[in-house]
């Protein structure tokens, strides 16, 4: 579940990245075909790049070497006193499943809408006469809908247009069909179904459709001798607003922009470099989110001697396992008394029919005072455990009862370590293990954004009305003159947004730089946290054993800490969504122009 949410977050972030690059750098350029492939590349990248993860291995020094214990003891059914503090299970809402359910409802609704659109298209084409000409299939219908193309189908209502207008429309739709623009439309619709919750994907789809119209207008205008007549057709067609959703239809609610783009001078070749501005951003994305660091211990040499780590403090291990005989237990107690002046009393020994140890009690004593004890009872053979003695440089000794664990720092079952120096015996409480604290994710910098320049829409020039009779030369001459004046007014009326866009770019660049630095620090802190968490889990298992209730208590505390960490990550995602909303607000302000 977490992996799914991470993928969605990364993919949505890449969509925002490509859309911002197109909106602020490329939408006013006349490299329409290049913009088409740029936008499609953004969709593909948003799906593929999150799966491309580079694994970086960080070598760390190995944990202290532990010798193989020669005698083992089972911790089966062993219950320490402090294990009574078990947390009660509480009912909690799994918000991951709630979010997944909401997503599924939206996905299903849009999928049904997609299917309905296909059905509507098939209903229009069903039973219609098709005229095959070269690579195109022409369908003349009676429905009052805008002309459209769908792969090699070109559909129109000839009764709604004059012969010259119909010729212009067909040239336009031929470009859509010849360049397979229907694929772009379908791909953008699929992404809207998958990422319906992301507002940027709907703006992204609109940008794709708008750019396809620019391509078709530009190519059609090259084949049409009367460029002005083509623009008249654009103005006339605005009255036919009914269209089929999954097709390239001649009418789009951007006639003003299409007319402006038709009359715009070709962009300078040096502006083509703007397409490469996305590369540094993608490289930064890979370094921040697509490099996984794995900590790996350096190879170490195992030692099987009873005395290990001679360069520091000597450690002696006496092992008890299920096949240890009574004679071996007796010899172990004598050896501990003779070599280390430690009294070890072994009692309550029980065996099964296979002569395997199933119960045993071990008391470590100094004189008449009990320092430490452990008792194991069960129906099955015991597991590995042992008596660990650490000889320190000052001559003192630390002893403990432990399962297979870190020999340098024995994990004592009774939660006590006994330090023996001369005639003095001291009990030292080791305390409970504390899980590491996860780092707090950084917050994306926020603040006021510059206001977009206000535009007086009332002063927007109104397009002239074409005469009803195109054969009236006087009326047509007057209309052409009015249209020429309208085009000049439109060019002068269009507001200059360059200063506003530059301000927004500078502010967002500064905030992104600050956020990237904080994210880099956060990633390093998370790597350390993951390493510390792995070590903590191992320490808990070694100290308490997987079958003990204390291990269960510590793991529940770990789960509680991780839930808190998930809450913090959700807050981080919320802040990123707020950032996306701010970009959306800027988009709306810019569209007012």
Question: Could you explain the architecture of this structure?
Answer:
This protein is an alpha+beta fold and 593 residues long. The strands form 4 sheets. It has a 5-stranded mixed β-sheet. Strands 8-12-13-14-15 form a 5-stranded antiparallel β-sheet, with no helix packed on it. The protein has a 3-stranded antiparallel β-sheet with strand order 9-10-11, with helices on one face. A hairpin with a 2-residue loop joins strand 2 and strand 3. Helix 2 packs antiparallel against helix 6. About 11% of the residues have low confidence.
Structural descriptors:
593 residues, alpha+beta, 5-stranded mixed beta sheet, 5-stranded antiparallel beta sheet, 15 strands, 15% strand, elongated
Summarize the structure.
The protein is an alpha+beta fold and 593 residues long.
What is the helix content? 40-55%
Radius of gyration: 38 Å
Largest sheet: 5 strands, mixed
Q: What is the distance, rounded to the nearest whole angstrom, between the alpha carbons of the first and last residues?
A: 42 Å
Per-chain topology:
Elements: H1 2-26, H2 32-48, E1 54-60, H3 95-125, E2 130-133, E3 136-140, E4 148-150, E5 153-156, H4 163-178, H5 181-194, H6 199-223, H7 227-237, E6 248-249, H8 255-262, H9 278-289, E7 291-297, E8 315-320, H10 326-340, E9 343-351, E10 357-366, E11 369-376, E12 385-391, E13 397-402, E14 416-421, E15 424-429, H11 473-493, H12 498-544, H13 549-591
Parallel strand pairs: 1-7, 3-5
Antiparallel strand pairs: 2-3, 4-5, 4-6, 8-12, 9-10, 10-11, 12-13, 13-14, 14-15
């Amino acid at each position: 579940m977490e992996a799914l949410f991470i993928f969605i977050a990364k993919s949505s972030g890449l969509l925002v990245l490509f859309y911002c690059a197109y909106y602020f750098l490329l939408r006013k350029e006349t490299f329409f075909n290049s913009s088409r492939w740029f936008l499609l590349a953004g969709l593909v990248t948003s799906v593929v790049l999150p799966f491309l993860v580079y694994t970086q291995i960080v070598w760390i020094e190995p944990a202290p070497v532990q010798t193989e214990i020669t005698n083992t003891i089972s911790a089966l059914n062993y219950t320490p006193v402090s294990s009574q503090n078990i947390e009660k299970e509480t009912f909690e809402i799994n918000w991951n499943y709630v979010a997944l359910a909401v997503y599924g409802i939206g996905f299903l609704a849009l999928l049904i809408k997609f299917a309905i659109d296909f059905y509507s298209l098939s209903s229009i084409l069903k039973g219609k006469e098709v005229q095959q000409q070269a690579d195109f299939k022409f369908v003349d219908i009676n429905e009052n809908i805008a002309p459209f193309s769908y792969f090699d189908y070109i559909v129109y209502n000839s009764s709604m247009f004059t012969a010259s207008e119909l010729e212009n429309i067909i040239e336009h739709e031929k470009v859509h069909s010849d360049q397979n623009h229907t694929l772009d439309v379908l791909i953008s619709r699929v992404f809207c179904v998958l990422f319906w919750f992301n507002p940027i994907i709907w703006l992204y789809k609109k940008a794709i459709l708008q750019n396809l119209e620019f391509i078709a207008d530009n190519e059609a205008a090259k084949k049409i001798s009367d460029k002005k007549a083509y623009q008249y057709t654009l103005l006339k067609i605005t009255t036919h607003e009914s269209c089929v959703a999954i097709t390239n239809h001649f009418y789009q609610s951007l006639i003003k922009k299409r007319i402006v783009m038709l009359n715009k001078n070709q962009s300078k070749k040096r502006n083509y470099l703007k397409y490469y501005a996305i590369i540094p951003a993608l490289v930064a994305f890979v370094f921040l989110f697509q490099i996984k660091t794995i900590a790996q211990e350096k190879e170490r040499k195992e030692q099987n001697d009873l005395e290990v780590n001679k360069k520091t403090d000597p450690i002696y291990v006496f092992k008890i396992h299920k096949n240890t005989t009574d004679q071996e237990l007796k010899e172990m107690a004598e050896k501990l008394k003779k070599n280390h002046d430690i009294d070890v009393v072994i009692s309550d020994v029980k065996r099964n029919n296979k002569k395997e140890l199933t119960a045993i009690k071990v008391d470590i004593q100094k004189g008449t005072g009990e320092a430490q004890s452990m008792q194991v009872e069960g129906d099955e053979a015991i597991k590995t455990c042992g008596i660990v003695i650490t000889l320190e440089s000052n001559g003192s000794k630390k002893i403990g009862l432990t399962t297979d664990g870190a020999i340098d720092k024995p994990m004592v079952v009774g939660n006590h370590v006994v330090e023996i120096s001369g005639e003095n015996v001291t009990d030292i409480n080791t305390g409970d293990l504390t899980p590491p604290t996860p780092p707090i994710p950084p917050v994306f910098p926020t603040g006021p954004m510059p206001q977009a320049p206000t535009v007086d829409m009332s002063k927007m020039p109104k397009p002239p009305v074409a005469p009803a009779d195109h054969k009236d030369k006087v009326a047509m001459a007057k209309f052409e003159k009015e249209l020429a004046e309208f085009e000049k007014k439109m060019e002068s009326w269009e507001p200059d947004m360059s200063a506003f866009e530059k301000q927004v770019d500078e502010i967002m660049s500064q905030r992104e730089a600050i956020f990237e630095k904080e994210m880099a620090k956060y990633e390093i802190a998370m790597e350390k946290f993951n390493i510390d968490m792995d070590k903590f889990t191992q320490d808990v298992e070694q100290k308490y054993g997987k079958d003990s209730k204390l291990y269960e208590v510590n793991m529940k505390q770990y789960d509680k800490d991780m839930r808190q960490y998930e809450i913090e990550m959700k807050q981080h995602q919320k802040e990123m969504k707020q950032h996306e909303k701010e970009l959306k607000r800027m988009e709306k302000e810019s569209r007012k122009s």
